[in-house]
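Hey all, quick one. A colleague (J.T.) asked me to put the adenosine-5'-diphosphate job into the tracker so the inputs and the structure tokens live in one place instead of scattered across chat threads. No bug as far as I know, just bookkeeping. Sequence used:
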Amino acid sequence: MVLSTDSQISDAGFPASRGLMAEAMRAHDWERTALGPPSGWPVALKVAVNIMLDSPESMFIAWGPGLTFLCNDAFQPLLRPRRKPPLGQPLRELWFDSWGQIEPIVDKALAGIGSRFEDLPITLTRPGGEERTWWTFSYSPVRDETGAVVAMMGVANETTTRVLGERRHAFVIGLQDRLRDLTERSAIAAASAEMLGVYLGAGRAGLGEVDPSGEFFTVAHDWTDGRMSTLTGRWRLNDFSTEVMTDCRAGRTVRIDDVIADKRINGAHTAYEAAGNVRACIAVPLLKNGRFLAAFYADQMEPRLWTDDDEAIVREVAERTWAAMERAHTDLALAESERRYRALFNAMDEGFCIIEFIDGPHGPLSDYVHIEANPAYAVHAGITNVVGQKVRAMVGAEAQGWIDLYASVLHTGRPIRFERELEATGRWLELAAFRVEPPERNQVAVLFQDLTARKRAETALRELNETLEARVSERSAERDRLWRLSEDMLARADYMGMMSAVSPAWTRSLGWTATELLSRPYATFMHSQDAAPTLAAIERMRETAEPTRFENRIATRDGSWKPIEWTVSPEPDGINFIAVGRDLSATKAREAEMRRLEEALRQSQKMEAVGQLTGGLAHDFNNLLTGISGSLELVQARVLQGRYADVDRYVLAAQSASKRAASLTHRLLAFSRRQTLDPRTININALIAGMEELIRRTIGPSIAMETVSGAGIWSIHVDPNQLENALLNLAINARDAMPEGGKLTIETANRWLDERAARERDLPAGQYVSMCVSDNGVGMTPEVVAKAFDPFFTTKPIGLGTGLGLSMIYGFARQSGGQARIYSELGKGTMVCIYMPRHLGDADSASIEPDAAQLARSQSGETVLIIDDEPLVRMLVVDTLEELGYAAIEAADGAAGLKVLESDTHIDLLVTDVGLPNGMNGRQVADAARQLRPGLKVLFITGFAENAVLNHGHLEHGMHVVTKPFEIADLSRKIRSIILDN
Ligand code: ADP
Ligand code: MG
């Protein structure tokens, strides 16, 4: 090239070329650079710049002390990822990443020697990682007229795309070659993994197959570079970030350049760490019918900028590998189906044979020999050794017809097929004959088929082929999972006494290894007491072929026993059975623990109640005893001092204390439902009316009182004194609940309790009378309601509450065949109801007792028989009777009493203790007395212990009770009223 001289190049508007770079150079402020304005540049250089700018080749020039870079428009795209405008940059800065490789070549050019490279690999740095590129380029020196090198000129082309394309192509061909000869799925997967891993220079590569559940994937084998650990095993997909897996499931390739920086991995880092410190990975999912089946992946422990080329290659490998695996599968299936067909041919009823034309001219003498035949054909033909037989010899007279038929098939190659009904059997037979290719073989295949059976076989076979594969793999996967994961112990065993398969749960539960379990008769694992019944149950199952259940104890390896519940079912083969065992130890232990806890709770509740009861009792009795013994001491002191005047006061005090003690016992008995009731048939409204005045006085003026009496109220049969007592107690409770005043309501009603209402109240269904006392006071919390009926439970300060009121009411209601219930809301009020059963019968006239004031001495000297073994009591009663003007006859026991009754002595009343010596109690005496003297009036004297004897207070008409301890005045009143009552 001849360069122009200095003067021929105009500096104005240098460089004159068109294009973007020329423009940029013109606009560049060269004055401020080390190169100075272009006017000072060597002429040779300027010429070179012009050539470069005008060239369609991608070119650059570097010159000056810093090798300043100038390039043309065609070179621009090669600089693509370098952000800074390259114009005027030192070459070394621009290609800092490959400088090590470039520098010697540049030096060579500057030294005057040009060089050229083809497809030189150069690794470039890109944001986030490195990129492998390939280049074909030449560097040449630019000399001035003196021959000195003033610059270097480069012509460069990036060939990455082509190189990679070629490599990929070569790789794929290699892959194809390698896979061609492989027939096993696992070998195919392994070969591909290795090839891919090596090609990509990755740390690891492989194929993960997704479970039918879509939740896990399994890697059977993978390839690693020896540094990275393997990924073989079973992994949960979503552990590797749900977002990533969503992409996979949708069939999108996943490229992760840096696990740490990738936002999709948030929170899933540990999985990538656990999977071999993965920093970068690429995965291509494989889908079939929209289902995510597998993924081909490559990983490495360093970040990596995956390129489109990488993705393309992984995809290529994934698809080819998968196809090869499917093909292997198909080949296998084909071989299998071939085998099945052959088996079928051998087994089928239809006759099949191949006959071969025997050399010779076609014509009347031509013949065919059988060279192959299936057993069915032999049966059709009626001879066993068909092979080797000639058609003419076998068929006889009709042979020519057949031979002509076969000859036409052999010549034309056109198969024939016809159906014919065989009159003898009534079955449709189809005959088909076709030429066996190639024609030189001179063979004809002949098929005799029973049409219906063939059709059936064909359909069955087709269906089998279509579904068998899928069914088998699905089912066995399912079964396998069940077998491995089941908590229950699963086993296959035979009636000879051995197991042939056991699930892993056996070892987990019992500690025995599978080998141990399978090598000993199963009975030897059973508890000696359980073995016989268990074997008997198994034997029974064998006879009935019905599944059965039993429980037994099985030895664990460490020498203890576990209770196991078994479900066993026979296999159809009649030899084996399947057993499913559930370990009951946990259940049993839990049940036992529950029972123990419940028992402990009940016990502690009982102890608490008893503690409360005895504590309360002790407290009350102490007070009363103090009153009594203190008074007695004082009496004694005063008597010694001869100061009799004070004695009376102390006696009174002692008496009042013992009266209170008696009433306390009474209430306790009421609570224990052992009090002796004296029920009467009463009208509850009348009873309430009689109490109104007393209640009004008790509750005071700040509380209003209302009585709502149910109309036509039914009679009830209860102890009226106790009912009054209950009502008074309820009124007092209500008063205590309304310290600021309020309203008290007493309401009675007839109630029909149906089954449900009765069940709620723990009563038999039926008719009841209710008495409800309500207030609008402070109310109770549910906790207080729950305890209010407990004896001695009180929320009131010491001295104000005894905690016995409601417990007595409850005891009374229950003992009277009824119920007591609290309905309360905190802050609103309380209603306590007593339900009492309706009494069907007449009102009891005895309920109207004469007032004590009306008591007068007897006028007519009636006679009373008194039976009591205790002389003191007898004396007391006799004294009382005589004081009242009655005649009294005494007896010490039942027998003595009955003697009197057998005589004709007139007797108006029998008073008898219940507890009597010498074989007869008071109740029996009274019964015997009524046999002798029907309607005889009876008064029992009783302590609570004999309550049962008196039928729990349910007495016959004309029988009455007085409870010990009693007051003389009470006794007199009672005797008087009984005798007067007719
Ligand atoms: P006492 O009245 O001696 O406390 P009770 O057996 O009569 O004993 O009552 C037990 C507890 O039930 C009372 O202390 C009180 O807490 C609660 N109670 C009973 N009746 C009412 C009521 N009408 N309103 C609010 N609380 C009540
Ligand atoms: Mg009370």
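Adding what we noticed when we looked at it: The longest helix spans residues 585-641. Residues 1-10, 422-427, 844-856 have pLDDT under 50 and may be disordered.
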